[in-house]
Amino acid sequence: MTGTPHLVIAAGGTGGHMFPAQALAEEMLARGWQVSLSTDARGARYAHGFPATVSIAKVASATFARGGILAKAIVPLRIIGGVTAAIFKFLVERPTVVAGFGGYPSIPALAAATALRIPRMIHEQNGVLGRVNKIFARRVNSVACGTWPTKLPGGIAATHTGNPVRASVRAKAGADYSAPGDGPISILVIGGSQGARILSEIVPEAIARLPAPMRAQLSVSHQARSEDEARVKTAYAKAEIAAEIKPFFDDVPSRIAAAHLVISRAGASSVADISVIGRPSILIPFSAATADHQTANARSLMDAGATTLIPESALDPGSLSEQILAILTTPGAAVQMRENALAQGIPDAAERLAALVEQLAEKT
Q1: Whole-angstrom Cα distance, residue 306 to residue 332?
Q2: CA-CA distance, 18 to 24, in Å (whole number)?
Q3: Residue 269, burial from CB neighbour count under 10 angstroms (0-12, 13-18, 19+)
Q4: From CA 325, how far away is CA 310, in angstroms rounded?
């Protein structure tokens, strides 16, 4: 290998794919690599946190999960167009390694790398392989997993690297924690990169049911979809609870570090961030997630006594309020959950994944 090595990162258009991809980009740049991101227009909206030196290429891609019959019919044509464009691009600017993080937008780069026999790998964030990563698991040189154990096809070996967390998360790793008591109490509610409707429907009412003295101590940060924002604000205001509601928080690591309790979906990146920073949590897995992978994501924290897991089917204001109260008022409970979460965190996951990238590069 001569010259500056070049990593192409291919990732789909959600925070769950893009945040660990960003973490790897930061690490590879620190190691002197050139880094490019291959994603679609939707993914580019989540790429604002990538370092400025990462070049971003928008590829033609599509998903079978959205749109009508006609939209689904043209999906293969769009993907083929993206693959063809990626092949020509890689012939001119041959990357050293291609790393896919899942999602349909990762298909063009991974397929082009497979056709041109460029060293390639995938990273699966969830406890169950996503559709695209399942397709490429037998076609790549290395498979890395963020959640362990991850359900894999027979005969596939994988390396447990953990889920890479961004520099902004690593900066808060193991942040000091004050047990909830007589002073202000902070609760963070996050439902993935765009909030979650069911959390906006249930959580405000659950918090409103807490005893009045505790409500007076509370400060809530709640990430809600734009269409739910006004209703959530009204609910907290009616209960006289201090709350900040936004469709997207661009400082989630700082808010996790400031929280006494995090109420969240169980997306892989959210679980990784909560573990590395070390905070008690209540996790509500998304019931429609493919193969129930969010429950798999939460299993390690649940088994370690670091979280309370509530299935979406069992979520209601009364039971959630009881769980919040138990964590915040049982002596030692929140601190112990925080310690248990830290024990599950892998703050050097980006370094572990970068080592796999460099091992592949040595074979070129």
Answers
A1: 13
A2: 10
A3: buried
A4: 15
Query: Do residues 298 and 309 lie in contact, with contact meaning Cβ atoms separated by under 8 Å?
Result: yes
* Both structure tokens of 162: 């953990």
Which of helix, strand or coil describes residue 342? helix
State both tokens at 61.
């891609």
What is the band of 75 on the pLDDT scale with cuts at 50, 70, 90?
A: low
Instruction: Say what the pLDDT of residue 14 is.
Output: 80
Cβ atoms within 10 A of the Cβ of 155, count? 7
Here the tokens at position 338 are 């925080």
Task: Return the amino acid letter for 282.
Answer: I
272-330 pLDDT tens trace: 999 999 999 999 999 988 899 999 999 999 999 999 999 999 999 999 999 999 999 99
Quote the distance between the C-alpha of residue 289 and its chain's center: 13
Residues 222, 236 contacting (CB under 8 angstroms): yes
Distance CA 275, CA 253 (A): 11
In what side-by-side order are the strands of the sheet with 97-100? 55-58, 34-39, 6-10, 97-100, 120-124, 142-145, 159-160
